[in-house]
Write a structure and sequence with these properties.
Helix content is 60%, strand content 5%. It contains seven helices and two strands, in the order αααααβαβα. It starts with 6 loop residues before the first helix and ends in a 6-residue tail after the last helix. It has helices at 7-17, 22-34, 36-62, 77-86, 90-105, 123-129, 138-142, and strands at residues 110-113, 134-137. A two-stranded parallel ribbon has the order 1-2. By secondary structure, it is mainly alpha-helical.
Length: 148
């Protein structure tokens, strides 16, 4: 908001794209109209808190006692061919191959995803072709609706 645009333009964009944060942004826009200095101060404070939380979470992820990373070298070419024939986003196909690779080592692994269109919509195919136990939509955990 400092560099370009305004609270109103941000709100209009959010409403047009149906962001979940629209109610919060409406409140911020109203605050900006009534007390612009206070609004900017509040937004900057929230930004700093958010960044601190991100740094804290990153430290947890960098702790090798909390998270172990692996590198998949197996190409799973047959799976790639099946998935890439129906899933147009190749990154999503890679995610599925990685999840399958992990599921081989972890029995009963559930893949939670926010990608409804490419992954959840192809749940039956994924479950029939991989060792993944189940595929679930993240929106189901927070009461969200699948995209149309």
């Amino acid at each position: 908001m400092k560099r370009a645009g305004s609270a109103e333009s941000l709100l209009a964009e959010a409403e047009g794209r149906e962001w979940r944060t629209v109610p919060l942004l409406r409140h911020v826009a109203e605050l900006c109209r009534k007390q612009p200095e206070a609004a900017l101060k509040t937004i900057l404070a929230v930004k700093e808190q958010y960044e601190a939380l991100c740094r804290q979470r990153r430290c947890v992820l960098e702790d090798r006692k909390a998270l172990a990373l692996h590198r998949r070298v197996e190409p799973y070419r047959e799976l790639w061919d099946r998935f890439s024939a129906v899933i147009e986003d190749y990154d999503d196909c890679e995610v599925l191959l990685d999840a399958h690779h992990v599921a081989i080592a972890i029995d009963g692994m559930v893949l939670y995803t926010g990608d409804y269109r490419h992954i959840v919509a192809n749940r039956d195919l994924i479950l029939s072709e991989t060792r993944i136990y189940d595929v679930r939509y993240l929106g189901d955990r927070v009461g969200g609706q699948p995209p149309v």
